[in-house]
Design goal:
83% of the residues lie in helices and 0% in strands. The radius of gyration is 18 Å and the shape is globular. Keywords: Membrane, Transmembrane, Transmembrane helix. It comes from Haladaptatus paucihalophilus DX253.
């Protein structure tokens, strides 16, 4: 699904904004802003790396989806996570749809590529949900570890973690993102599945 050159320009603008956020973190010596900015920008160039090194061409809409998720996270590190109560929920929901999309696309491509693999729709739904929640739990553990390490070192945490209640709410939004992909992923991610399937076919030849 191609959605035009304007999406490519929007991706470039968000990349520039992320670089600006990274620079702010460097100038202000804010480790959290800087590290998350570097991480976010690295994610935005990943589609190009996959296209160049692995011949996996992601369509424009998916690239925009990825960039928007990390862009919102990078902005949140400037203070929106603390000042806007729903910002963390928004970024978790969007990030969870990306994680679920990766899990769904990979499993669906394996399903179509191999006659030895068959994933019924109900199994796929449960798989996407569990895959996303497992990734969410791993992320929460990383947030907790980052916060603890920051306190020991005496710097601002690279990742923000607000306690057990926040973790539970984060996982609820992770689950919501997984459900959205499980219900509507067939149409949105069909081109991504075909790209992965072509890659698997080339490797098996």
């Amino acid at each position: 699904m191609k959605i035009g050159i304007s999406s490519s320009r929007l991706v470039r603008l968000m990349q520039l904004a992320i670089l600006g956020i990274t620079f702010v973190g460097l100038v202000t010596r804010n480790v959290g802003v800087f590290v998350n900015g570097v991480f976010a920008f690295g994610i935005t160039v990943l589609p190009g790396v996959l296209r160049r090194d692995y011949r996996l061409s992601l369509d424009t809409s998916l690239t925009l989806w990825i960039t928007a998720a990390v862009f919102l996270h990078a902005i949140g590190m400037l203070g929106l996570y603390d000042e806007v109560w729903w910002w963390d929920h928004l970024t978790h929901l969007l990030s969870a749809t990306l994680v679920a999309g990766v899990g769904y696309s990979t499993a669906r491509a394996f399903d179509e590529h191999s006659d030895a693999v068959f994933f019924p729709p109900r199994f796929m739904f449960v798989y996407v949900l569990l895959f996303t929640l497992a990734s969410g739990v791993l992320w929460e553990v990383l947030e907790f570890a980052a916060r603890g390490s920051a306190h020991i070192i005496g710097v601002k945490p690279v990742l923000i973690q607000y306690g057990l209640d926040d973790t539970i709410v984060d996982l609820i939004f992770d689950a919501a993102g997984a459900v959205l992909v499980a219900l509507f992923g067939t149409s949105v991610l069909s081109e991504t599945v075909e790209t992965l399937l072509a890659r698997f076919s080339r490797e098996s030849d």
